[in-house]
Amino acid sequence: WRSNNILLVVLLCYPHLGNSSCRRIMYSHSVSVLLHIILSSISVLTVTLNLLVIISISHFKKLHTPTNFLLLSLAVSDFFVGVVKIFLIFLIDGCWFLGADWCVFYIALSFVSTAASIGTVVLISVDRYVAVCDPMHYQTKVTANRAKICIVLCWLCSTIFHTVMLKDNIEHPGGFDSCAGGCTFYLPPFAGVVDLLCSFIIPISVIVILYVRVFMVAVSQARAMRSHVAVVTLQNSLKVNRSELKAARVLGVVVVVFVLCLTPLYLVLLTIGLGVESASSYIFVVGLFFFNSLLNPVIYAFMYPWFRKCVKCVLSLQILKSGSSEANILEHLLKCCF
Hints:
Elements: E1 2-3, E2 6-7, H1 29-59, H2 66-89, H3 100-133, H4 138-141, H5 144-165, H6 167-171, H7 189-227, H8 235-273, H9 279-303, H10 305-315
Antiparallel strand pairs: 1-2
């Protein structure tokens, strides 16, 4: 319709349904192309880089350590976040054309992969805490089997918890969409509070407390080394700590980046719950959190020589050679890797 010489065009997701259809968000052609290119590039890079981490740690047996198993779990969750980004491309213009079942799958995958990612970061913090603060008992307390059990429990709890939270959505796909072409979900009021506690407040508190303790031990250790007060009987344990501290620094970067990307999302979600809502802010913080899944493998590439070597082996197809899984990928890199 035309008012005061201004032409307003309303486009619908399903024009033949009239007012029962959701409205399509209109962008200029250049903006639409730019958004598709950016989202597609980030999605492909996230999926590809995390897939390289998954293949590397899974294939090379020398990398089958408790800490690396935790990195593998984080890479798997980040991989699924990359898959979720692909679904987001379909929502750029505000219309969902894949059907109610795929909408529920997309939402459930988003919640489960996000929760598993948060749980894995907590496990990484616990792993570094034991390695740095109790190095003498690390080998007995943190074993590969225990790490695997913790990872399985983390994913199992994330799946069960969010299946219960999204129970109404799973039983009634599309039942909460206000218009045709939408993809929305419903959470009971108490579920939002529980999710805030279990997915943000408690995990972040645990992560901060553990890494503050790790930082304090690392500082005291550095001071002791500089002052040369370490006695001969402690030299071996100091060597262990020095190696573990290198891993703690790298994983500390991963944890700090994760917290910085996660915190704005929940702060905005909290303001929405209090009645303060900004669509642009919400889109930005969601994008920031999803972007974290791309940053993790980039951090590994810059700080882990073994990862760069593994990528070369994967891309050159050397992993297809018989016995390649037994290769000592850490050879000549032991001074750099944990």
